[in-house]
Design goal:
Elements: E1 2-7, E2 11-18, E3 21-29, H1 35-51, E4 56-61, H2 64-78, E5 83-84, H3 105-118, E6 122-127, E7 130-136, E8 142-149, H4 151-161, H5 181-208, E9 213-217, H6 221-225, E10 234-235, H7 239-251
């Protein structure tokens, strides 16, 4: 069994890989200062150690402090060191960023995985703490893209930075025209971000000189797809783990 770990700003995802495929995924909230979360991690990793014959761990992280903490726990519970994407394992995709090391490894890995599983050209939309748009050229190169605040981040900013707007739950609106403040905010989030996704895909396609297929991933991808007019080729919540499975397989 290979375990792939995706350390994001909001969650830590564990993908269990068997014969190059993702058998299942477990997710824990990423709050490393929380004793409850630390206890959950300890329990999860101890249980996984007893239940599975783990022979390799591969890790992709955008949070250095959490990465260091997980690496210590991997050595403690699983008696091995993790392969770190971008350090021990290179992502085999041409990177067109001006400064290639600045690209988040999660963005590059999702672009690589989408290329391998869905073909080119394409735009990958990842709806996480931040929403990222990443282009892959007809030749299969990573072009770069765009980053905007994610849904939960935007909702929290509205609540924290305004005097009268309430904190609202992430819930799909029934109509575009909200008849209450809560409905109006929900409409703005879903219909607004849906229109933003449509516009960004069109503009990225214009700049790429093609009509890219759209692949979506991340926590709110399934919801947001319904608020877009642009066709979406696939919503793939396991995209980053599929990418790590390909890398782990290549390592032998």
């Amino acid at each position: 069994m290979i375990i792939a770990i995706d350390i994001g700003n909001s969650t830590i995802g564990f993908g269990f890989l068997n014969e190059g495929r993702v058998s299942h995924v477990s997710v824990i909230e990423n709050m490393p200062d929380s004793e409850l979360v630390m206890a959950k991690l300890d329990n999860f990793m101890a249980t996984a150690c007893k239940r599975y014959a783990i022979h390799k761990v591969i890790l992709c992280s955008v949070v250095p402090d959490t990465q260091k903490m997980l690496q210590r726990k991997i050595r403690k519970f699983w008696k091995m060191s993790a392969l770190v994407v971008g350090r021990d394992v290179k992502i085999p995709i041409e990177n067109k960023y001006h400064h290639p090391r600045q690209v988040g490894k999660d963005r590059l890995l999702c672009a690589f995985a989408a290329r391998e599983f869905y073909g080119v050209p394409l735009v990958v939309i990842d709806l996480g703490t931040a929403i990222t748009f990443d282009g892959v050229s007809p030749a299969g190169a990573y072009l770069g893209g765009a980053i905007i605040p994610g849904i939960r981040l935007s909702l929290e900013a509205l609540f924290e930075k305004t005097a009268l707007l309430p904190r609202v739950q992430v819930a799909e609106p029934k109509k575009v025209i909200g008849r209450s403040t809560e409905e109006s905010i929900q409409s703005g989030i879903f219909h607004g971000y849906g229109a933003l996704c449509d516009g960004m895909v069109d503009r990225l396609g214009e700049e790429m000189g093609c009509s890219p297929k759209v692949i979506m991933t991340g926590g709110h991808a399934g919801n947001m797809r319904r608020f877009m007019k642009h066709p979406v080729a696939a919503v793939d919540q396991e995209l980053i783990f599929k990418g790590m499975a390909l890398l782990a397989e290549h390592q032998g």
